[in-house]
Amino acid sequence: MTSREREQFSTEELAKVLSHYDVGIIDDVVEFARGSRRSPKLYLSTQKGNFLLKRRARGKDSAARVLVAHRLQQFLAEHDFPVARLSEARPNGDTLLRLDGYGYELFEYVNGLDYDGGLASTFAAGRTLGEFHKLVAAYVPDPAPPRDCFHDANAVRTGLNAIPSSLSAHDSVVGFEADLEQTINALYQAYDAAASEAERWGVTHTNVQIVHSDWHPGNLLFRDNQVVAVVDFDSVRIAPRVTDLANGALQFSIIATGSDPKDWPDYFDETRMKRFLLGYDQETAVSAEEIQALVPLVIEALIAEAAVPIAATGSFGRMQGFGFLRMIKRKVRWLQKNASRLVTVLSA
Fold first, then answer.
1. CA distance 322 to 317
2. CA distance 296 to 197
3. Percent over 70 (pLDDT), the chain
4. Do residues 136 and 228 touch, judged by C-beta distance below 8 A?
5. Alpha-carbon Rg for the chain in angstroms
6. Is the full-model pTM beyond 0.85?
7. Which domains does the chain have, with CATH numbers?
8. 3 state DSSP class of 114
């Protein structure tokens, strides 16, 4: 199997896994081709309802890591937060089934739509994050998740430093080595400056709690402009809640037009960014200090999102790494130039 092919369930594997769940007679099985290609998923229509079966990817199936995510999801479900409920496997009632060296999860299937880019859905995405933060503020996880995030992270700096080596053999870099070095230096300096500015507003010591750490449109399902399910709790951390807010503001306002990042505009959708923040504030009040720290944190999140995968693979998804970094540099410059004005807009 190549890295571009999606892993699949075998018939024997599926039968063996489902023998551990009480789902009744199966009417239909359809491949659910979303998310990581290394983590195959199946939609199941059964006598007892509709389910989503997932085999966890290697490296993301450690018992401790999964236990953190599952216990949090169960807590959220008990408090009527929109998550897909986990099914328990026989004979032990565990929510993570271990078979033949793999880990499996079975969720109730939630019928929802992808993010439509509209202001109503954007508001709902922010409001749901605010609801999440309010609900888990006093939640004490056991076991505890990692205490780290994209803010002022050495892993990001290490990634930036490693990018020239990961891209050195790529055709797009030949003859442009000086340009690549300048781009990396600019991003490194911007990251450090943004981290310092965020620290000036007390980020590290303010409202530290459980955060989702991956709040983006692909992890939310919508119906009638409301969030009906939040998915993928694998990145849960203990960190300042404003890091979640900044990442969400980034993900719901970035404009990505077409498959080539050179065609993406420098600017962000300020109306969507503002609407996301208003939704959040409806559930969890945003402090003046968090507003001041928001733009520098968006810069940090933008750089971190690109640096780590490009350092590891030389690309960002299916996009060539060098071109993606150039686009990131343009967007970072726009955020730097418009930081003061954005604070005024977001504070109004």
1. 12
2. 6
3. 99
4. no
5. 21
6. yes
7. 11-108 (3.30.200.20), 119-347 (3.90.1200.10)
8. coil
